[in-house]
Amino acid sequence: MTSTVQRVLAERRHQLILRALRNGGPAAVTDLSEQLGVSPATVRRDLLKLEEEGLLTRVHGGAVAEEGDQPFAEVAEVRVAEKDAIAERAAAMVEDGQSVLLDIGTTAYRLARQLHGRRITVITSNLVVYEELVDDEGIELVLLGGMVRREYRSLVGFLTEDNLRQLHADWLFLGTSGVRPGGQVMDTTVVEVPVKRAMIKAAERVVLLADRAKFPGTGMAKVCGPEELDVVVTNGPADAGTRSALEEAGVRVVLT
């Protein structure tokens, strides 16, 4: 079996394990082994890998899931007016003819709604962004490949990262689940982090979209430091420490 096929199968098992834990609570290795049709030893290796990524905690004989991102539908109706104000300011940065990378998440989706009628290229792993823009014939739309995270409406995995290594964009509009006082950008779901990092490498300029609830927000996985950001569009990093860390790193803070 090729390494590529092995990686795809492992990613699929990891998704199924996390879904089982989140839907049914703690699960035993023997139960997961039977559900997945693999050996208990394979399940134990998968659990170890997922624990290293912060997605679950191993317990005697099995595992329990860690709290991760809320499903897209649960977040989409939260702080809509704030997200729209941030999206409007972000959209004004983009000029016709430019290329734009849009991250996963609901704020990126609100930004996509502001881009209708523009002569631009949009690259995304966000399925809701794709659905929003697919009928806009003025926009060149590039959908990245990858494994589908249905509840979170995103594409992830090594295929997504490989696609990004072959692309370059004028702008990246990046989402986050939290920004630490030192300016570190965090995420709650480790599986999304490599894609976000690949997006940063593929972009000329990186703009973080973060409403006030993201300071400090949540997240145990570091996406990047403030030195990798160019702009933060927000309705307020309230604490002086965060603002100072961003300014010292040369980040322009745009308040809505």
Number of helices: 10
Oligomeric category: single chain
- Provide mean pLDDT, rounded: 87
Largest sheet: 7 strands, parallel
Shape: globular
Report the structural category: alpha/beta
The strand order across the widest sheet is 6-5-4-9-12-14-15
The arrangement of helices and strands along the chain is HEHHEEHHEHEHEEEHEEEHEEEHE
Q: Care to count the β-strands?
A: 15
Beta percentage is 15-25%
Could you give the distance between the termini?
53 Å
Low-confidence stretches: none
Radius of gyration: 19 Å
Q: Assign a percent range to the helix content.
A: 25-40%
Characterise this structure.
- This is DeoR/GlpR family transcriptional regulator of sugar metabolism.
- It comes from Streptomyces umbrinus.
- The chain is of the alpha/beta class and 256 residues long.
- The chain is 39% helix and 23% strand.
- The chain is built from ten helices and 15 strands.
- The chain has helices at 3-24, 29-36, 40-52, 72-75, 80-91, 106-113, 127-133, 158-165, 193-202, 240-248; strands at residues 27-28, 56-59, 62-65, 99-102, 121-124, 140-143, 147-149, 154-156, 169-174, 178-179, 185-187, 203-209, 221-224, 231-234, 252-255.
- Strands 6-5-4-9-12-14-15 form a seven-stranded parallel beta sheet, with helices on both faces. A three-stranded antiparallel beta sheet has the order 1-3-2.
- It starts with a helix and ends with a strand.
- 43% of the residues are buried.
